[in-house]
């Protein structure tokens, strides 16, 4: 493996054999069990991380709540300056961190670099945002009165992130939360803990250089910490990325104590391929969407809804494209598809294919687990394509693997209905050069998803937009646009600068 420079990357990122994974910067609290992180690339042990006990968690929370008291007083643009430096530090470590993401998670090195680029971009975005945390001003109905609203820091933000974007999704939360004046406690996925340790090492250096309380950025490790966060009344906002099943639990638990959540749960993303589509564009969008990250993005393309008049032609082009895919070590730039995260995911993939067949699905491109040289980890699978009905149970569910379901439609209205007719509502797209179809798809009678694209696939959203979806996707929004508002508390202020005290609604109260 070392011809890919993994050892050097680990060194640069300060990853040791045993990492005491509970931390507020330089202070380490970790007395729990050990998580071993194995690479899905070759099955080798990369390193170990100690988990947080309840006591460790408590210590971290004390640090975080203490840090909030000073961090919220730092002027927002000054907080932005710290985030700018975090972006700079990430630029310096981009190669090493991209490599670790690829090695620990299994996505291609290009995508690993892309993920770090998203982190850098969100930092840049947050720097500008730090001068734009605007509220409205309103006209009061009373004379000599002024009204406005303003946004204040919220407190400790708990981020529980998933393995598939082990660094970027956390940074969307952290960079925005920091400029908003919040402090962060991060519980990374136990499948990719080293990526989190690497981020913490990078950030700690920046904070230390600036004499910032390191409690502004904390990590707790181990799955038990998830529920500690969910139940903790000191955490007003929990941002959770993961399955709908766990998301439902997070949502209930946090709501019970009137905490807020940002939920980024499952997707079941479809591309509608119109008879007016540019087929070459469809191929790039659909194949990257379905097999990129081995189908393990929330935004991965799961369904292709194809117009009947171009169905056969599109299927042929798809089959042809799939035969050209090379599957193997994701650090090798000549491969398109890396491994799934672990053997459990491989089993889910196999079960999905079996289930699709048993419901009547017809295999268009055969799947299967790869064996032999280069595939020793047992996590490499062949991307597959299955002709299916939208109503199949398996098509209605999200399988985090490169399984693409294809189906036919005859009218655009029918296609939009099919696209919407699943429990999830994250990303969607239509490929068409017909303006009426495109506009209908984007209209209030169109896609019901949080993300709706025209002539772009379902995956690969830019950080400038708000990211998230409807229905079982959870309804949260992260990243750009005005998603920052969820990280602040809103306050309406009315000031009377006159000498009378008129009541609102003209109410008289004389005595
Ligand atoms: C996710 O899959 O959890 O749009 C996030 C995309 C990426 C982020 C995906 N920018 O595919």
TrEMBL record:
The keyword Translocase does not apply. Residues 33-492 form the Aldehyde dehydrogenase domain. The active site is at residue 264. Keywords: NAD, Oxidoreductase. Coiled coil: none annotated. GO terms for molecular function: aldehyde dehydrogenase (NAD+) activity. Its EC number is 1.2.1.3. Homotetramer. Belongs to the aldehyde dehydrogenase family. This is aldehyde dehydrogenase (NAD(+)).
């Amino acid at each position: 493996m070392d011809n890919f420079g993994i050892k050097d990357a680990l060194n640069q990122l300060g990853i040791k054999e045993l990492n005491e994974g509970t931390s507020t910067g330089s202070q380490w609290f970790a007395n729990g069990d050990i998580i071993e992180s194995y690479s899905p690339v070759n099955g080798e042990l990369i390193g170990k991380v100690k988990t947080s006990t309840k006591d460790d968690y408590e210590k971290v929370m004390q640090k975080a709540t203490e840090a909030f008291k000073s961090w919220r007083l730092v002027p927002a643009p000054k907080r932005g300056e710290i985030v700018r430096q975090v972006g700079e530090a990430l630029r310096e470590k981009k190669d090493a961190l991209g490599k670790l993401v690829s090695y620990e998670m299994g996505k291609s090195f290009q995508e690993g670099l892309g993920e770090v680029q998203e982190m850098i971009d969100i930092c840049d975005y947050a720097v500008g945002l730090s001068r734009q945390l605007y509220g409205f001003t309103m006209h009061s109905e009373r004379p000599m009165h002024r009204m406005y609203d303003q946004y204040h820091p919220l407190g400790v933000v708990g981020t529980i992130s998933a393995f598939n974007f082990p660094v970027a999704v956390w940074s969307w939360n952290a960079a925005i939360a920091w400029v908003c004046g919040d402090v962060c406690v991060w519980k990374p996925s136990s499948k990719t803990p080293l990526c989190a340790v690497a981020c913490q090492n990078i950030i700690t250096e920046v904070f230390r250089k600036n004499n910032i309380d390191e409690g502004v950025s904390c990590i707790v490790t181990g799955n038990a910490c998830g529920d500690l966060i969910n139940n903790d009344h000191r955490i007003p906002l929990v941002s959770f990325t993961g399955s709908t099943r766990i998301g439902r639990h997070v949502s209930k638990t946090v709501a019970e104590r009137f905490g807020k959540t940002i939920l980024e749960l499952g997707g079941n993303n479809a591309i509608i391929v119109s008879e007016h589509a540019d087929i070459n564009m469809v191929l790039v969008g659909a194949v990257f969407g379905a097999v990129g990250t081995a189908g393990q993005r929330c935004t991965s393309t799961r369904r292709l809804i194809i117009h009947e008049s171009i169905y056969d032609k599109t299927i042929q082009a798809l089959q042809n494209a799939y035969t050209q895919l090379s599957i193997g070590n994701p650090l090798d730039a000549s491969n398109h598809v890396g491994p799934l995260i672990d053997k459990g995911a491989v089993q889910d993939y196999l079960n999905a294919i079996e289930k699709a067949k048993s419901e009547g699905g017809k295999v268009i491109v055969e799947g299967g687990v790869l064996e032999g040289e280069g595939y020793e980890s047992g996590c490499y699978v062949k991307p597959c394509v299955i002709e299916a009905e939208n109503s199949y149970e398996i098509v209605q569910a999200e399988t985090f693997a490169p399984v693409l379901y294809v189906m036919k439609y005859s009218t655009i209205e029918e296609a939009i209905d099919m696209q919407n007719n699943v429990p999830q509502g994250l990303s969607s797209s239509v490929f068409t050069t017909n303006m009426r179809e495109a506009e209908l798809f984007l209209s209030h009678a169109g896609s019901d998803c949080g993300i709706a694209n025209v002539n772009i696939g379902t995956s690969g959203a830019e950080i400038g937009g708000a990211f998230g979806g409807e229905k079982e996707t959870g309804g949260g929004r992260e990243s750009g646009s005005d998603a920052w508002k969820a990280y602040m508390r809103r306050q309406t202020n009315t000031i009377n600068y006159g000498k009378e005290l008129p009541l609102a609604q003209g109410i008289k109260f004389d005595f």
